[in-house]
Amino acid sequence: MWKFLAKLISPKKVETVKSENNAEVVVVAEDYINNELDYDYCPFYPSVSEFEQKLFRLRSYDGHLRQEILEDLRECFDPLLFPHLLWRLNDYVQINQKLAVDHLQRWSERPEFSELCLQNFFEIAALQKRLRVNPKVFHLLMNNIGQNKLFLVENLTQKQGRLPRALLTFAVEFEWLDEKELILLCRHSKDQLVRKYWLDQLIQTSSDQQMLSILKNSQQKDVQYELFNELWKKDALTVNDLIEVWHSPYLAVMDYADFALRQKNFNFDQYFQDHPFESLSKRKLRLRAYQWMIRKGSLTEFFQMIQSLNNPLISMAILQLALKRKYIGFEYFNEYYQSVDEKLTLNRLLKLRKLTGQHLSIVELEHLVVLSEPISLLQRLELVESYNRWEQLYWYALQLSSINGRKEQNLYDMHVQRRLWRINDEIYPPHWSAHQKQYLQSVVPSMMQQFPEVFSGQNVRKILEQRLDIKM
Questions:
Q1: Domain with 350 in it
Q2: Kind and range of the H or E run holding 209
């Protein structure tokens, strides 16, 4: 035991040798290999330059090796070195930290320094959370970013995601911009979380009339919702204001305004009579369809609105939402698409299955496939992978008539054997309709001959005999 520990903690003799292809290989001395201790090698291929090898060694666990490379690259100002110096600012060896700090301070006097800071903004931002970073050099890096006003304006207003949000955080902390200028940039930002900074300031400092004016003129969902929520809590909205917000193109805002109107005992029936959908423009008719859906009005009038739109894309979007909100059932969706003779793509078909939020019956799935564009045999077979095996048996029986060629037959045979090989273990009996039973009676006998191993179990033979009156 003690001999093993002595070997483990003793310093290994490491040397670098050249292989035949001129690649460097790091090995440990022969006596360590003979003692069966672990050793590593790190090849450098001829295509890797000497400078790239040095950058690689800057990430070594050996602090002395890192120090040697930093001293060797003291006068190097290659852009590839810049992020490596940023990482070394957090080096746990103090001399390596100092070498990195000195190098960056010398680099700051060069004209390309500011551009490199912008390119490596996220690496610089990460330094704030690290333990051993020199505050002076961190502020030097940050100041170079804050001085580039064009970079701040462009990214705060035109970009979305992590970059504008991080820039906003540092702009507030380091006061890169005047407060009024920053709020104005946030107002025109494309990022919702950046706009929230302006919204919070607006709610704190503006009057109700100013907020109402912005609410009515804004085209952004978050702005409409936040301002409407604030004004509704203050009871600063009249019925006419609520009606105007009720016609927002955003469903969340429309739904909130519908709630607010109900709290005011608004007469929706009278409003719909005074403004019949036949007299509305296409845009307002689309909004009326959404309002009608929220109000759960008559389905007859709803489908009349859909037909009046005379736009398949908009109609599909509204029907999908109605299906998702359980305003219409799947049978109404089927009836509409059969009446307009439209075909669904496979992606649309699968999306509709997901939108329903419930398990479609085999009959509904059968109707959907009829409505959709032609899909391959494999795609049809895979549609029922989440169904129980009795339902799968009926579905596979339906696909028998659509097999074309030996290739599809082999695919069908393999799929049926893989999915139904444990049908004998099904605990619950099938729930086939009379029509399904009649079809299975004509098809199952031939399937039993084709797949004898699938139907060899006592349980499955008993159920088929009882349910389908098939003689075994």
A1: 280-375
A2: helix 208-217
What is the rounded CA–CA span in Å between residue 257 and residue 229?
9
Least Cα distance to 158 among 190, 183, 186, 185 occurs for 190
384 lies in a domain? Answer: yes
Q: Is residue 215 within 8 Å of residue 226, measured between CB atoms?
A: no
Residues 297, 329: one domain? yes
Strand-pair partners of 18: 24
- CA distances to 362, 386, 431, 464 from 389, in Å: 12, 9, 11, 13
Distance between CA atoms of residues 229 and 315, nearest Å:
30
* 243 closest CA partner among 203, 286, 288, 282: 288
Structure tokens at 303: 């489908």
Q: Are residues 399 and 352 in the same domain?
A: no
* Residue 470 confidence (pLDDT): 76
Residue labelled with tokens 């389905």 = 299
The number of distinct structural domains making up the chain is: 2
**Between 220 and 385, the higher pLDDT residue:** 220
Statement: residue 13 has pLDDT above 60 = no
Q: What is the pLDDT of residues 195-212, one digit of tens each?
A: 999 999 999 999 999 999
Domain membership of residue 237 (yes or no) is no
User: Between 354 and 210, where is the model more confident?
Assistant: 210
Q: Cβ(399)–Cβ(381) under 8 Å?
A: yes
Position 312 in a domain = yes
Domain boundary among 349, 375, 401: 375
Give CA–CA dist 471/112, Å, rounded.
Answer: 88
User: What number of other Cβ atoms are within 10 A of residue 197's Cβ?
Assistant: 22
Of 352, 375, 398, which residue is a domain's last?
A: 375
Are 354 and 296 within one domain? Answer: yes
State the DSSP string of 352-401: HHHHT-SPPPHHHHHHHHHHBPP--HHHHHHTTTTS-HHHHHHHHHHHGG
**384 and 472 housed in the same domain:** yes
- Is-contact 470 464, C-beta < 8 A? yes
Output Rg (C-alpha) for the chain, integer angstroms: 35
Give the torsion sign (CA, 377, 382, 387, 389).
positive
Q: How many residues does the chain have?
A: 472
Q: Is residue 370 part of a domain?
A: yes
Asked if residue 471 and residue 380 are part of one domain, the reply reads: yes
458 and 367, same structural domain?
no
Q: 252 pLDDT band (50/70/90 cuts)?
A: very high
Does residue 334 sit in helix, strand or coil? helix
Q: Directed axis angle between helix 389-399 and helix 434-450, to 10°?
A: 80
